[in-house]
Amino acid sequence: MTDGRAIGVFDSGLGGLTVVRELIKQMPNEDIVYFGDTGRVPYGTRSRETIKKYAAEDERFLLSHGVKLIIAACGTVSSVAADSARALPVPFFEMVTHAALSAVSATKNGKIGVIGTPATVSSGSHKREILKLMPKAEVTAASCPLFVPLVEEGWCSEDDIVVTETVRRYLAPVIEAGCDTLILGCTHYPVLERAISRVAGDGVRLINPGVAVSKAVADYIETAGLQNSGENKGKHKFYVSDKPDSFKSLASVLLGEELDDGRVEQVDLNDL
Fold it and tell me: Which residue among the candidates 74, 144, 156, 179 is catalytic per the annotation?
């Protein structure tokens, strides 16, 4: 049994491309349809009702492309709007549970840090999942609202003083708590991984949720026999809700491959 339909991935902007990169590493033969809601980024400062509304619209767009599963490559949606996605007609994967499992497996002292958008942190979703797996774990969460704008603006270098000082200020409670494991609770954050690692120190293990969820998706596709065995396999198409120019330039860095005009298309969700 095989399935030539694409994997659907969505995020509020560029961050979900870190998940796409991991998916390509794990499953180079799979087609991928990506939607970045660049016209409404960031999601992390929005109300729960707005986040759920946006997520439902993003999912509907991907379903219109006949995808075989959907990944919410967005920590905010995974934390706030995952429940409604369980009613989707295709399998749904979110970031929180897989990140929590990886963190619990990695920690040695039981002290786990979580950084994310304000909506992700206030939801408490990572802490709940961690405590289910490790009831005695000590979880310290820190909201990092400026990280997404930094990434979207391309300010990502660990040598940039603005980046370094922003990271240092946000990570202070995690470092003070003695966490030896840190969940990057937003898919934008792996772009800042070098800066975060430098500030956190060598003794802190960083958990990239994109790695965890891509492995889970790969296992599911193999177990279910849904691999793509078509002749023109491994195609990747990208859609955005705002002008694609800035998306293309930064996406090439995140993906490690150039995106020409034919692969990035601006769409209006109101047309669905």
Answer: 74
